[in-house]
Amino acid sequence: MELQINTTATEQEAQAIAKALASHFGEDVELYAERGEDLLASASPEVSAGATTPDAAAGDGGNAEPLEPTAREETLQAEIDDILEGGPEKYRERLSDQGKLFVRDRLDLWFGEDGLSFEDGKFANFDAWHPSGQNSDPESDDRLPADGLITGAAEFEGRDLHFMANDFTVKAGSMADKGVEKFLRMQQRALKTGRPVLYLMDSSGGRIDQQSGFFANREGIGKYYYNHSMLSGRVPQICVLYGPCIAGAAYTPVFADFTVMVRDVSAMAIASPRMVEMVTGEEIDLQDLGGPDVHARHSGSADLIAEDEEHARELVAKLIGYLPDNADEEPPQTEGTAPARPPEGIDSVVPQEPNRGYDMNDVIERIVDAGSTLELRPEYGPEIITSFARIDGRPIGIVANQPNHRAGAIFPDAAEKAAEFIWTCDAYDIPLLYLCDTPGFMAGSQVEKDGILEQGKKMIYATSSATVPKQSVVVRKAYGAGIYAMSGPAYDPESVIGLPSGEIAIMGPEAAINAVYANKLAAIDDPDERAEKEQQLREEYREDINVHRMASEVVIDEIVPPSSLREELEARFAFYETVEKDLPDKKHGTIL
Question: What is the model's pTM?
Answer without folding.
Answer: 0.86
